[in-house]
Design a protein that fits this description.
Elements: H1 7-15, E1 20-22, H2 24-33, E2 37-43, H3 53-64, E3 68-74, H4 75-80, H5 87-107, E4 115-119, H6 127-137, H7 142-148, H8 161-176, E5 181-185, H9 189-198, E6 208-212, H10 238-247, H11 259-272, E7 275-277, E8 287-289, H12 292-300, H13 306-327, H14 331-340, H15 357-361, E9 369-379, E10 387-392, E11 399-403, H16 411-414, E12 418-422, E13 428-430, E14 433-435, E15 438-439, E16 441-443, E17 451-453, E18 465-468, H17 486-491, E19 494-496, E20 502-504, E21 507-511, E22 514-515, E23 525-526
Parallel strand pairs: 2-3, 2-5, 3-4, 5-6
Antiparallel strand pairs: 1-6, 7-8, 9-10, 9-12, 9-18, 10-11, 12-15, 13-14, 16-17, 16-23, 18-21, 19-20, 20-21, 21-22
Helix pairs in contact: 1-2, 3-11, 5-13, 5-14, 6-8, 7-8, 7-9, 8-9, 10-13, 11-13
């Protein structure tokens, strides 16, 4: 068993490949006393790409140095930054980030159990945090707030107030996450110095700040989610990786703004402590480098050809991406990916003037959900797994509803029961019987599968409206258009809480008499 590293060794691991450290003396003083507590935050905006391996590699260093590491999924920041993540997509994108960042860490061998994962909205909406935002806003000048966010917050001609709040929230995160240090790119420097200036004015300690260099993208500029050719997506196919690397800026002998070399330096070398340049025997055969400086020197002297360098990075990169691709090949994560990042081309040309209208409109108030009373239950004449029910939803005539509940709920338990019915789906025939609604049920996550119809509060009447907390006022669609997939998009965020309460994005399903629930399926899905 290797001996635990001493303070100086830990310092070297923590600071290697960094561009700058603010608070070096404090960092060393902490390391002499105890383990460092540090956090890295990422706003859940565009899709993470391969440049995210740069901070992941440093997180691996922090863990080797014994640090207590927190990863913050800054969902509220993503919204505040000029609404880069629309509110309606925020939860979906945060879940996508959680899955993909964890998959990246696993692909480079980082043990997830040693990390703490936190969402910004877990604490940023608390009374105490909100009060501190107000306290901070009473001492921060507009000039300082704008200057602090200049390199991070999207700059527009008429900036929103939300962008001025962004740096203050990031500063407060250091206190509320109870860390000694914050880690980020050097583009965060102005926010870090802002935090050092203003946190003491609230009576909070100044933190250490660790900064990575900005890694050039494949075009030679910063790797960006918004510039398609500058980055390789984590889920890009192997042929796309090859195509993008082939077009990458990698001029013979030029080591400046070389994204291919930078990726080797900041990701591949720290992970493996070596890099193998693959080439044919006639060009000297494979060569293993154990120091990045030697590789850079050979490239500068044109001993290593750009084509060989790109081919070697392609092989190494695909080894990192393969387990991520495999994880995201399951139907659930494919669905999450497409819902969190809907393809712009799917918007009809007529919608160009209101390109944001579709995601903005996908809100729970568009669903016509009502309390229903089951009047009769019969087996479907042509399907052993289906019931045909007559359900009173407060209309002149009861609705006919077909439900696949035969194997989960005995007929006598449905008879005269109050249920929760989605009433504005387009009617469709199920084995010859037209179904005019959907009984909403909770389903267990694991096997064997269990299903329980949702229960309205006791005392509800047939036809009573069921709504999601905070969305009481909107009018439901007369009929949901199947092509728009409004229900499917909303349903992706339906969950049963640990208290067995039905929720959408952690907001309760309600009637005027209280919450909608199920009997026992904690943490289940709803469909």
């Amino acid at each position: 068993m290797e001996p635990a590293p001493g303070p100086q060794e830990k310092y070297q691991l923590i600071t290697r490949n960094l561009q700058e450290v603010l608070g070096e003396d404090k960092l060393m003083a902490i390391l002499k006393e105890r383990e460092l507590k540090i956090y890295w935050g990422t706003a859940t905006t565009g899709k993470p790409h391969v440049a995210y391996f740069v901070p992941m590699s440093k997180i691996a260093d922090f863990l080797k140095a014994g640090c207590e590491v927190t990863i913050l999924f800054a969902d509220l920041h993503a919204y505040l930054d000029n609404m880069k993540a629309p509110w309606e997509l925020l939860e979906l994108r945060t879940r996508y980030y959680e899955h993909v960042i964890k998959a990246m860490l696993e692909s480079i061998g980082v043990p997830l159990e040693k990390l703490k994962f936190v969402r910004g909205t877990d604490y940023q909406l608390s009374k105490e945090y909100t009060l501190d935002v107000y306290r901070l806003s009473s001492v921060v000048t507009q000039h300082d707030a704008k200057k602090a966010g200049a390199e991070v917050v999207k700059q527009v001609e008429h900036p929103l107030l939300s962008g001025l709040l962004y740096p203050g929230l990031q500063a407060l995160d250091e206190e509320y996450l109870k860390v000694d240090a914050q880690f980020g790119g050097v583009d965060q420097r102005k926010i870090f110095t802002f935090a050092e200036k203003y946190l003491p004015s609230l009576g909070y300690a100044k933190r250490v700040h660790l900064m990575n260099p900005m890694v050039p993208g494949l075009t030679g500029s910063k790797m960006s989610s918004s510039e398609e050719d500058s980055k390789i997506d984590l889920l890009d196919r192997k042929e796309d990786v090859k195509k993008k690397l082939k077009k990458a800026f990698c001029e013979p002998g030029n080591v400046e703004n070389n994204g291919v070399l930078s990726f080797i330096k900041h990701v591949l070398f720290p992970l493996k402590s070596e890099f193998v340049v693959l080439r044919e025997e006639k060009w000297g055969g494979n060569k293993t480098y154990t120091a990045y400086e030697a590789l850079e020197k050979d490239f500068a002297e044109q001993v290593v050809h750009p084509g060989d360098l790109k081919n070697s990075v392609e092989v190494a990169l695909n080894k990192l991406l393969d387990p991520i691709r495999e994880k995201f090949n399951c139907p659930e994560l494919k669905k999450l990916s497409s819902a969190a990042y809907p393809t712009p081309s799917k918007t009809k040309p007529a919608d160009k003037g209101t390109k944001n209208s579709e995601p903005e409109d996908v809100v729970p108030s568009r669903l016509d959900i009502r309390v229903g009373k089951v009047i009769s239950v019969e087996k479907h004449p042509d399907a052993d797994s289906l019931y045909v029910e007559k359900i009173d939803v407060g209309e002149a005539e009861p609705r006919t509803v077909v439900s696949g509940l035969v194997h989960f709920v005995p007929k006598e338990q449905l008879q005269d029961r109050l249920v929760v019915l989605l009433c504005n789906l387009k009617p469709q025939k199920m084995r010859g019987v037209e179904s005019q609604g959907m009984v909403l049920c909770a389903s267990s996550v694991g096997e064997p599968r269990q299903v329980e119809p949702l229960d309205p509060p006791a005392g509800c009447c047939a036809g009573e409206r069921v709504y999601v907390e905070g969305y009481e006022g909107g009018e439901p669609d007369e009929e949901l258009k199947p092509k728009k997939k409004v229900f499917e998009k909303l349903q992706a965020d339906f969950r049963v809480s640990e208290d067995c309460v039905a929720q959408w994005k952690q907001r309760n399903f309600l009637t005027k008499l209280g919450t909608v629930s199920c009997k026992s399926l904690k943490g289940g899905s709803i469909s």
